[in-house]
Design goal:
The longest helix is centred in the middle third of the chain and has 17 residues. Helix 6 packs across helix 7 and helix 9 packs parallel to helix 10. By secondary structure, the chain is α/β, with parallel strands linked by helices. It has an eight-stranded parallel barrel, surrounded by seven helices. It binds 3-methyl-2-oxobutanoic acid.
Length: about 280
């Protein structure tokens, strides 16, 4: 059976919940996460069997042309989360909390997490950081919103890191990251993204937690893997990290399709004989 036939033959899936994601770790079943910022991508990735759709603040660099994720606002994330949740996917939809939407106070964090669920339709939220966000995570979880943590090369701290560099190379930083991972689990996170850290640390943190780790540049031993959709589809024209694997070259296909349309219009081959709708 071809991949296409297998996708068509697949039985409809039940909605994937945060507890179901934790259960996948117990079954040692790898968890597949991709970013989605729009309705068709959400539907297509869902049909392909992806388990979690992340409306990442990477929307800023990937779709909106910003140089970092820092300018992304709550309104941006809400807008794209609504587009994704309208697809009514079986995949769990996680909305990323943008920079300055959760750092000021626990109250601000709770209100904005609530907006992403109430106005955006998200199933869960994600925020970056360890100890400093622990009180906010605890409170958001207490009011009933599943939270995904994010440690390592957290892009909202790019200015403090001085660039997109692998984090936690030294022993002290590794111990701190492992401690913060345990703290986030204690605070109630249902999963934890590990980004841009040595693979050995990814493996050690994964072994030490009951909740699943989702790696991005954190080695193959994480419980799941996440990629930015535009990276895996060959649609992102900017700088790509070394760990990215492209599964398609859609930018080439799009360029060729546009070029053919340009040629047809210029040569009056389009719209052919059809005069109207
Ligand atoms: O915003 C995003 O896409 C992310 C993933 C890369 C984990 O945070």
């Amino acid at each position: 059976m071809s991949e296409k036939e297998a996708i068509r033959a697949r039985a409809p899936r039940a909605k994937i919940t945060a507890p179901a994601v934790v259960e996948m770790k117990r079954r040692a079943e790898p968890i597949v996460v991709v970013t989605a910022y729009d309705h068709p991508t959400a539907r297509i990735a869902d049909e392909a069997g992806v388990e979690i759709l992340l409306v990442g603040d990477s929307v800023g660099t990937v779709l909106l042309g910003y140089e970092s994720t820092l300018p992304v606002t709550m309104e941006d994330i809400l807008h794209h989360t609504r587009a994704v949740t309208r697809a009514k996917t079986a995949a769990l939809v996680v909305a990323d909390m943008p920079f300055m939407s959760y750092q000021v106070s626990v109250e601000q964090a709770v209100l904005n997490a609530g907006r992403l669920v109430q106005e955006g339709g998200a199933d869960a939220v994600k925020l970056e950081g360890g100890e400093r966000v622990a009180p906010a995570v605890r409170r958001i979880v207490e009011i009933g919103i599943p939270v995904m943590g994010h440690l390592g090369l957290t892009p909202q701290s790019v200015l403090a890191f001085g660039g997109y560099k692998v984090q936690a190379r030294g022993e002290a930083d590794q111990e701190r990251l492992a401690r913060e991972a345990r703290l986030l689990e204690e605070c109630g996170c249902f999963a934890l993204v590990l980004e841009g850290i040595p693979a050995r640390l990814g493996q050690a943190v994964t072994r030490g937690l009951g909740i699943p780790t989702i790696g991005i540049g954190a080695g193959v031993q994480c419980d799941g893997q996440v990629l930015v959709s535009h990276d895996l589809l060959g649609l992102f024209l900017g700088r790509q990290p070394k760990f990215v694997r492209r599964y398609a070259e859609l930018a080439d296909g799009m360029r060729e399709a546009y070029a053919r349309f340009v040629a047809d219009v210029k040569a009056r081959r389009f719209p052919g004989d059809a005069e109207s709708y």
